[in-house]
Specification:
Blueprint lengths: L7 E6 L2 H14 L8 E5 L10 H11 L5 E5 L2 H13 L7 E3 L4 H13 L4 H10 L7
Helix pairs in contact: 1-4, 4-5
Length: about 140
């Protein structure tokens, strides 16, 4: 299924550098990915390791084009932070989903699938499918 606007992707990591690097990799492998809004929400406001509800909220708002937002996370407390924001109900765009997927492979799959014009369901499915990728 194709949407008029692209699905946004937010990458939440405990490290700003990791989130930015994965975003850059995903954009690059999606052919530049300029058409796909991707935002990194890494670390804390002060630049330390951790997660920030404020950075996640701002990132989700920045990539929301009306077609939904897929949020991928790296570690446990990032999951808890995003779940808490979703439970609030008004902190994140309405069609925001926490996607259960491997961080790097899932991010690449999500951005490439969004770049192809897929809807949120397809973006989520592609990211989740990354769990099945074999490396050897």
């Amino acid at each position: 299924m194709s949407t008029q606007e692209p699905v946004g992707v937010v990458l939440v990591s405990h490290s700003a550098q990791v989130a930015e690097a994965v975003a850059e990799l995903a954009r690059g492998l999606a052919g530049g990915g300029a058409a796909v809004p991707v935002a990194a929400a890494g670390g804390t406001e002060g630049g330390g390791l951790g997660t920030s509800a404020e950075l996640i909220t701002a990132a989700a708002a920045s990539v929301d084009r009306g077609a939904g937002v897929a949020v991928l996370v790296d570690l446990g407390s990032a999951v808890l932070t995003v779940k808490a924001l979703l439970a609030e109900g008004d902190e994140l765009p309405g069609a925001t989903r926490l996607v259960d997927a491997p961080f790097v492979e899932g991010a690449v799959a999500a951005v490439v699938t969004s770049a192809a014009g897929a809807d949120l369901d397809a973006v989520e499915a592609a990211a989740q499918e990354a769990y099945t990728y074999r490396k050897v």
